[in-house]
Amino acid sequence: MPKKPLKAYRNQEFLNSPEARAIRVQCELVEPEKRFREKDVSHTIVFFGSARCPSLENATDEFSKRRADSYEAARALSRKLTQWSDELPDASKRLVVCSGGGPGIMEAANRGARDADGQSVALGISLPFEQGVNEYACPDLSFEFHYFFVRKFYFLYHAKALVVFPGGFGTMDELFESLTLIQTGKLDKKLPIILYDKEFWNDIIDFDQFARWGVISPDDLNLFSFADNVDEAFSQVVEGLQAYHL
pTM here? Predict the structure, then answer.
């Protein structure tokens, strides 16, 4: 009997080829949503921030201890929001903390949810210098994306609030894409955006100058707010969710 030809969907060489890129993108778009439906996850609170913020127990000098303050704040805020969400009377409105799955602020967000005995999402990305998702993320809600743009799609698709901690280029990319989508109406939902640690943000970006130079509308400065402690950030997130989501 002649050997049967290999079916296209079993041909690994083809599936990993440039010609099949659209198929790989489609897989990364479809598979996560299937899992989200199975786990009843449709509302998230997204944490952005640096992978380079250590926990306090791992901080080795004064400079790293300052970054560790952001880690501990993200952990505490995640725990507090998870506890608050779990007590919402309408289970269909409950929210799940979501992070990028890596170390630093991302780990802190997943860890805080774990502290509260809650589940959390980890939207990881394959990078040469990171080893999978952090240990605090829920295995059933952990993903490793190849394509940054699909990962960023899922950051915002289910998001009902964003909390942005100090971070580098990746954090800035995530923040400014979110602001652009809201500004241009591509994201047609109200989304509270809280920037944590006003001193950091004022040192890094003079937002007012965008409006002064006329490259954004003054009203665009109202797309986000600042918080300097966990209680303040918690109040702003909850107030935004109560206004737009609950």
Answer: 0.94
